[in-house]
Amino acid sequence: MEQTKKILGKKYKKACLELSNGVKLKGNAIGADVIVSGEMVFNTGMLGYSEAMTDPSYLGQILVFSFCLIGNYGIPDLKIGDFFMSKGHESSSIKTQGIIVSGIYDGCHHHDGGVSLEDWMKSQGVPGISGIDTRYLVQMIRESRNLSGRIIPEGAKLQDKNKFEFLKNFRDDEYVDPSKYNLMPSVSTKEKVIMNKASKKVAVVDCGAKWNIMRMLVGRNCGVELLPWDSDFSKVKCDGWIISNGPGDPKNTGDLVERIKKDVLSSDKPILGICLGHQLLSLASGAKTKRLNHGHRSHNQPVFSFPEKNAYMSSQNHRYAVEKNSIQPDWMLWFENANDGSVEGLKHETKPFMSVQFHPEASSGPNDTSWIMDKFVGLL
Ligand SMILES: NC(=O)CC[C@H](N)C(=O)O
């Protein structure tokens, strides 16, 4: 009752979502008072909004949550240090350009303290709109191959372009399209970060890595070296490699694919590619990637493994995928999406190389495929 009063009693400014197909949707302005634009994407997860909003793979995107109420447990406190162990956050700041929700709860009831979703968005300069018919909007995104949008809160000013490097490429009257530019410099660590010295060391190529990858490695007694995307991989001494998730088009990553081919694949050490990392590793192996219609972003993506044909529920956030008919003869299909048959994972026939399109680190989402991390660590 108290919560309902809090939602209903609050007066919101108006805001407009202007879409690139000419449609305009009106709602309540939430979060920061700034105008942003980005690629329209949707996620059907019922929770995990703080993990999603801080996932660097959402850079340049306006995220529509299709679940009817977002913000209901607040945002846990961010405690950096201690090897990025602060659960609920997958990077140090919000990476989505903005969010669209049907209902928002403006409060915080989290065992880890924290703030409300709205206060968190305000403190980070991230706007949003509530009171939108997200079912209608999701259908529109599904039906249009490319949909961009602009969040315009009443009387707001334009977003500061210094927030992320890639934003400087866009004119104010243009829709931000994250697939047009190499986004690696906007999300990758600038300096090498060493976490948890241990006898086995994993080099993580940071393409916008979610912190849970590092949490899982540290939790499995691995040392971790988080590397800038543009490091000289030929000089790295490690027992295995993880090529991380990240935003944008895998083909738009400068010379990263070439360097993975030359210095990572050739080292013959165990490799695990995750999401963007899977796409980069596949490109380095000679396979091709394509753009899916609206991608997979949810906690309930079913995948089948081969040759066992086991089914798993997976957490996903991607728009690009590896083309099945381009898989090289020395690689095998390891996972396939049970809904649309798209490639969900590859394994090398003889070498300890593997990669998955979904997120074994979840956060948020089901942990059904966390055994992939155990398998990788077992190979070191
Ligand atoms: N989560 C990710 O790593 C996303 C990979 C890539 N940016 C895609 O959209 O397909």
From TrEMBL:
Its EC number is 6.3.5.5. Small subunit of the glutamine-dependent carbamoyl phosphate synthetase (CPSase). CPSase catalyzes the formation of carbamoyl phosphate from the ammonia moiety of glutamine, carbonate, and phosphate donated by ATP, constituting the first step of 2 biosynthetic pathways, one leading to arginine and/or urea and the other to pyrimidine nucleotides. The small subunit (glutamine amidotransferase) binds and cleaves glutamine to supply the large subunit with the substrate ammonia. It catalyses: hydrogencarbonate + L-glutamine + 2 ATP + H2O = carbamoyl phosphate + L-glutamate + 2 ADP + phosphate + 2 H(+); L-glutamine + H2O = L-glutamate + NH4(+). Pathway: Amino-acid biosynthesis; L-arginine biosynthesis; carbamoyl phosphate from bicarbonate: step 1/1; Pyrimidine metabolism; UMP biosynthesis via de novo pathway; (S)-dihydroorotate from bicarbonate: step 1/3. The gene is carA. PROSITE patterns: GATASE_TYPE_1. It comes from the Bacteria. This is Carbamoyl phosphate synthase small chain. The lineage of its organism: Bacteria, Pseudomonadati, Elusimicrobiota, Endomicrobiia, Endomicrobiales. Keywords: Amino-acid biosynthesis, Arginine biosynthesis, ATP-binding, Glutamine amidotransferase, Ligase, Nucleotide-binding, Pyrimidine biosynthesis. The keyword Disulfide bond does not apply. Residues 1-200 are annotated as: CPSase. HAMAP family: CPSase_S_chain (MF_01209). Composed of two chains; the small (or glutamine) chain promotes the hydrolysis of glutamine to ammonia, which is used by the large (or ammonia) chain to synthesize carbamoyl phosphate. Tetramer of heterodimers (alpha,beta)4. It comes from Endomicrobium trichonymphae. Belongs to the CarA family. NCBIfam families: CPSaseIIsmall, PRK12838.1. L-glutamine binds at S57, G246, G248, L276, Q279, N317, Y320.
